[in-house]
Amino acid sequence: MKIPVIIDTDPGVDDAIALFLAFSSDKLDIKAITSVGGNIPLCKTTKNALDLVDYIGKNTIVSKGAEGPILRKLETAEWVHGESGLASVVLPESNIKLQEKSAWDVMYDEAVKQEGKLNIITLGPLTNVAMALIKYPDLKDKVEKITMMGGACYIGNTTPAAEFNIYVDAEAADIVFKSGIPITMVGLDATHKSCIYENEITEIVNVNNRVSQVVKELFQSCLRVCKYFNLDGAIVHDALAVAAVIDPSIIYKEDHYVTIETKGELTYGKTVVDIYNVTKNKANAEVALGVDREKFIEMFKGMMKVYV
Ligand code: RIB
Ligand code: CA
Description:
By secondary structure, this protein is α/β, with parallel strands linked by helices. It has helices spanning 13-24, 42-56, 78-81, 103-113, 127-135, 164-168, 170-177, 188-191, 198-205, 212-228, 237-246, 293-306, and strands at 3-9, 28-35, 61-64, 118-122, 143-149, 183-186, 196-197, 233-234, 251-260, 271-274, 285-291. Strands 3-2-1-4-5-6-11-9-10 form a 9-stranded mixed beta sheet, with helices on both faces. A two-stranded antiparallel sheet has the order 7-8. Helix 5 (127-135) links the parallel strand 4 and strand 5. It starts with a strand and ends with a helix. The relative contact order is 0.16. The protein binds alpha-D-ribofuranose (RIB) and calcium ion. GO terms for molecular function: hydrolase activity. Keywords: Glycosidase, Hydrolase.
């Protein structure tokens, strides 16, 4: 039985690879792609989402979400993803017409339709999911799981304390983590163990099909940025969140109580993970702490075989 999913995203180089992976899987029934302001402004994440879905060869609905965070000004990351958001990749203009409904209305309507089976995969800030929960409080009872790329127990990549997706809109993350919806948090603790090394990238993209050049450029862009952080491999953060829905055994996870810092001057946007359960609170998330890197690489190789 395929898993009905909505992917909420701010493409974004690693988001783009994640979308290639998601659409290659026969485990996922992708009902919609929803865009959010994050890596780059909403107008560009929306364009990239439309162009990617069309280029991949699907006619999945694409719906636009929030320009920026609930309270704060949007802080983008062009230095990582380039002005366009897709580094050097230029895709043909999409022929897909943007869905009239907003991202949060699409999420709610699909959740009702799927009768509690809808899975939401978030690859950017959590603003759209938070907006959906604010507008439709009963959404919390209609979503099977949210698998998110975001947060971390021990490190930050935007401040020393915070990972980008949470940092951009910690208030939204706070709403989502308090919603009661089952969460799988695929954060930096796992993604930083999922490096794909240069020789492995070469192996993955060493096929001659209609997407191999684009995927190669996306991986190489990831690799360039990771070298800036003195990492010797490409970390495709968002693809690991998608992979964790396709095959949950790809990550090692533990149940923990997670809260979001929304007030701290130095710690705003930190996912505070109660590893030792000192608060005695019930866990509200599965937190990914490890990854089966070999499985991840094999999944990418399988992905490339699908795009003939
Ligand atoms: O911290 C990594 C996350 O922030 C990824 O989702 C990347 O696309 C950026 O949005
Ligand atoms: Ca992203």
